[in-house]
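tokens incoming
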């Protein structure tokens, strides 16, 4: 994957590989000791139901970065 600046990801819409909108990117978590990215933190749309992703205490989706398939107009993640 090509390098993408984090400032270009903030607020980016997130879509599943099934074509369904999941929400917008809120934040990205990382392991502070290794610097490895861990999870996308996504503000879910109201219509998101029955995902296999964990939810944060604030009700945001926690999507492992390994699920990212593409970043263009939308961020595409494997569902």
């Amino acid at each position: 994957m090509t390098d993408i600046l984090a400032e270009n990801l903030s607020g980016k819409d997130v879509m599943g590989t099934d074509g369904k909108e999941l929400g917008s990117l809120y934040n990205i978590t990382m392991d502070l000791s290794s610097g490895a990215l861990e999870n996308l933190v996504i503000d879910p749309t109201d219509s998101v139901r029955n995902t296999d992703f964990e939810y944060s205490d604030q009700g945001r989706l926690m999507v492992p970065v390994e699920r990212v398939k593409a970043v263009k107009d939308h961020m595409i993640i494997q569902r």
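note: Residues 55 and 61 are 5 Å apart (CA to CA).
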